[in-house]
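2024-03-11 09:14:02 DEBUG pipeline.ingest accepted 1 chain
2024-03-11 09:14:02 DEBUG pipeline.ingest length=186
2024-03-11 09:14:03 DEBUG pipeline.predict start
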Amino acid sequence: MIRKNPYGDLPVVHPSAFVDPTAILCGRVIVEENVFIGPYAVIRADEVDADGKMEPMIIGAHSNIQDGVVIHSKSGAAVTIGQRTSIAHRAIVHGPCVVGESAFIGFNSVLFNCTIGKGAVVRHNAVVDGCDLPDDFYVPSTERIGPGTDLDTLSRVTVQDSAFSEDVARTNNSLVEGYRRIQNSF
């Protein structure tokens, strides 16, 4: 469902993207080309800052927002999802937040007030809150990363991690075409 926020902003969805009919996009949301937005995802840009301003939420080209993902933002802060990035099932991305290109955010992970570098992998059930992760960092499952975390203790993304992330992105890109082809057939 595509709908306006209380300020009259309407999402802009590239014609080549696929948004599942059960997903909700509300407000200043920009969905770029060949994006897959899965069932029951919610992307809601409807809060403003103290001056009444709101930054957009941008979903970069060739990215995928999987089933049950929630993307929202505090006080109109920006959320940017880079190109070829995967946000896996039931993850929460709460702005202000930037997720770099070709990143992978695992099932049930939570991102808040952070920057995730290009090619980074945040595995399942992890939390990144209030800090910036450089490019190609790896966050293990169930790990909590915050301002006091010594980033030198984190591993770098391995070749296998990158291959997994690329495979997830490629698989979801192929779903865009398939679902667009059949979207009005039932």
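2024-03-11 09:14:41 DEBUG pipeline.report The domain at 2-182 is CATH 2.160.10.10 (UDP N-Acetylglucosamine Acyltransferase; domain 1).
2024-03-11 09:14:41 DEBUG pipeline.predict end
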